[in-house]
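User: Just a sanity check before I run the rest of the batch. Below are the structure tokens for the first item. I only need the designed sequence back.
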């Protein structure tokens, strides 16, 4: 179990056989060319594990195969079998202390970042829930991409540097005219609002990027639709993005209550049938928001009624009579 065969080097290596000593200096060849010191040697069922410290970065590493430099073949860890180099034990002890200190500092920094991210996500969950329409079937987003390609190695890729929420859709169909309509909500993508077939990309094939609007798939801003299959999952997916208010660019909400034959009660609030399963309250509700929340209402700044986007409270249809009584409409 401890033996491996290195095909390229045409050589069998017995990992159970110790080849270097504690405090011995080895080096990496074919990649970083850094030097390491062995500070501990451990044995297990698969052979020997050499615990290393990078002399330059003071980071911990583990190697299970270290080969003699005179038999160098490919990338790997190597030791000089003819002129072995050792460090003083006291120097290694100081280096080990420094490496532990660096690792602890990195772990503390990572934990602080984890806490910060969760705080942002908590703010984002609440903020996104408030703007997330009940009838939304997709989120329309703008993404800033950075080119990560390397033409010399034929590697083509990109990373997303920023995501901005610019709209919602009541369907999952990819329609470029709809993407262009929302492009004007964000200054950085406003130029994509003008019809231009060169910006329309259809890549719904294996390894493609789907439908998106933009100059390039690798760099700059693109606009795309993200389907909603599970409301809670979508809220989680956009929680961190929505945690930064500057990542939300929607059209200004019309807070004027709709004019129709629905009942109007106290505080000039209007109770309307929103759907077969829900009713909604529009108007100046700030003074009674606690009461509305206690009755099972959920505020949504992006409701749709009579063709307008309105801010209001949404309730289950079962609460209609209670609301009518509350507003003095029964």
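Assistant: Here's the designed sequence for the first item:
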């Amino acid at each position: 179990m401890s033996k491996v065969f290195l095909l390229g080097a045409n050589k069998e290596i017995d990992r159970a056989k110790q080849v270097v000593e504690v405090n011995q200096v080895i080096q990496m060849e074919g990649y970083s060319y850094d030097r390491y010191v062995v500070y501990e040697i451990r044995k297990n069922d698969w052979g020997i594990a050499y615990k290393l410290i990078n002399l330059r970065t003071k980071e911990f590493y583990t190697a299970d195969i270290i080969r003699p430099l005179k038999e160098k073949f490919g990338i790997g860890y190597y030791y000089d079998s003819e002129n072995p180099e050792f460090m003083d034990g006291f120097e290694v002890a100081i280096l080990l202390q420094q490496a532990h200190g660096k690792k602890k500092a990195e772990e503390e920094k990572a934990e602080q970042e984890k806490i910060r991210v969760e705080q942002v996500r908590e703010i984002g969950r609440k903020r996104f829930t408030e703007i997330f329409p009940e009838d939304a079937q997709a989120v329309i987003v703008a993404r800033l991409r950075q080119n990560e390609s390397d033409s010399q190695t034929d590697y083509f890729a990109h990373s997303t540097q920023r995501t901005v929420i610019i709209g919602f859709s009541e369907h999952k169909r990819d329609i470029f005219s709809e993407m262009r309509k929302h492009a004007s909500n964000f200054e950085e993508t406003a130029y994509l609002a003008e019809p231009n077939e060169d910006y329309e990309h259809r890549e719904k094939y294996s390894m493609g990027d789907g439908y998106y609007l933009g100059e390039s798939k690798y760099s700059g801003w693109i606009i795309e639709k993200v389907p909603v299959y599970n409301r809670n999952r979508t809220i989680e997916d956009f929680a961190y993005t929505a945690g930064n208010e500057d990542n939300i660019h929607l059209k200004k909400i019309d807070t004027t209550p709709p004019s129709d034959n629905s009942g109007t009660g106290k505080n000039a609030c209007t109770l309307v049938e929103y759907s077969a399963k829900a009713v909604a309250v529009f108007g100046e509700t700030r003074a009674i928001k606690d009461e509305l929340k206690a009755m099972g209402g959920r505020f949504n700044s992006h409701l749709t009624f009579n063709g307008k986007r309105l801010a209001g409270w949404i309730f289950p249809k079962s609460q209609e009579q209670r609301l009518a009584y509350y507003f003095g409409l029964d």
